[in-house]
């Protein structure tokens, strides 16, 4: 079992006690008393805090962090040593001591105190807030050599998601004798995957603005959104690959659908920055470690063409439609880690458009359509409109991309700045202009919107973009990106699970999530 530990980081005893009560109510599995946060810390305050925490019956860690490794107050070395030894005497379940201090002068007195205790265990830890350690295996070997009975912990900043895999390898090797955390947005997945790899513990904050390290999720997110307590060795992982991914509602929606069907599957946010090289490295890292249990991915901006190229080079099968579109938005990992690629944007977009208008796909014949953008979503939509022989003009800031896409599908193109000359029955925004948090921008000037137009914005966060608001004001029909998201997500769910998606849950969760983000 991997403990879900909540750090208690109040500046005084009263706020610490409130945080403890809230953590217990939220379902914490362990408490970490970050005594270095307490102003005017002394032995009496430590005793009162430990005695209060012991009443919860939860395991307790006492930490008095060195300011050089993230401590919040600069406390003398001898004082911090005294606090840790006193915590052993008070019956704390664990104390956390920095390895560098342990081998310098903390070691002998702490070992003596631990020898006299029948209860307290030692966590040896090292932190790097700038980036990964050079050789994680050597660090763990050194720490286990210094105190073989220790639970060994490292926490380092993941500058890229690929930095996480060294930590996963450590957890695979040592399991519940270790804690391996990757900090920052790119390292969020390490906090969840820890449970699959039987880490001793992982951390979650008690609530918003209570995190003690970058990338720390709240206990509510860990327990409810990511169903932390259900994760075991057999859990399958899925996720959304993109940059950025923090705006994505995919984790909320897919996890709700997995839960509704009682599936042992968890969907994660996967921040993969960079281009084709970094994308390839990420998937190579995944496929080289089948024990991680990754089985599929949604792929969003800017990686849909990278996903196609990867699948073409190393995959087993690519849906012909995805090849025609030139973009993959869904990857599935099958037997022997072979990858298949699909595109669910095509059907998702056309169904959203025709369902909202109450027409069939055939009725799009000869309708004039302006498509803004030339990325993966645009390619899928243009392929769909081309199949039904709509008259398409592509508008894009980078002219060469618009020209190339127009050549591929036999349609017209124009520079994005020419949008003021817009004259089309259907306008579809496939750019990121207007996406959260830039809600006050629109790719189309309001004066260009007419009441006889249909305006379709593929952005779904916010639920109603500025473009859609202005289109409504002009009297135009509007189609929300949420409808496209729902349709393509349902197809992805089927590819991931070989089961039909619970559509009512999908739709309710999608709109609830989007309303919560506005």
Give an overview of the whole structure:
The chain is α/β, with parallel strands linked by helices and 518 residues long. The chain folds into 3 domains: 3-216, Alpha-Beta Barrel (TIM Barrel); 239-343 and 486-517, Rossmann fold (3-Layer(aba) Sandwich), CATH 3.40.50; 346-479, Rossmann fold. Helices cover 40% and strands 19% of the residues. The chain has 18 helices and 20 strands. The strands form 3 sheets. It has an 8-stranded parallel beta sheet. A 6-stranded mixed beta sheet has the order 10-9-11-13-14-12, sandwiched between helices. The longest helix is centred in the N-terminal third of the chain and has 17 residues, at 99-115. The protein is elongated, with a radius of gyration of 26 Å. 50% of the residues are buried.
Task: Give the secondary structure arrangement, pairings included.
Elements: E1 3-8, H1 13-26, E2 30-34, H2 43-54, E3 60-63, H3 77-89, E4 94-98, H4 99-115, E5 121-128, H5 136-146, E6 151-157, H6 165-174, E7 178-183, H7 188-193, E8 201-203, H8 219-225, E9 236-242, H9 250-260, E10 265-271, H10 276-287, E11 294-299, H11 304-314, E12 317-318, H12 320-325, E13 330-333, E14 339-342, H13 345-357, E15 368-372, H14 376-387, E16 391-396, H15 399-409, E17 412-415, E18 426-429, E19 454-457, H16 466-473, E20 477-479, H17 481-497, H18 503-517
Parallel strand pairs: 1-2, 1-8, 2-3, 3-4, 4-5, 5-6, 6-7, 9-10, 9-11, 12-14, 15-16, 15-18, 16-17, 18-19, 19-20
Antiparallel strand pairs: 11-13, 13-14
Helix pairs in contact: 1-2, 2-3, 3-4, 9-18, 13-14, 13-17, 17-18
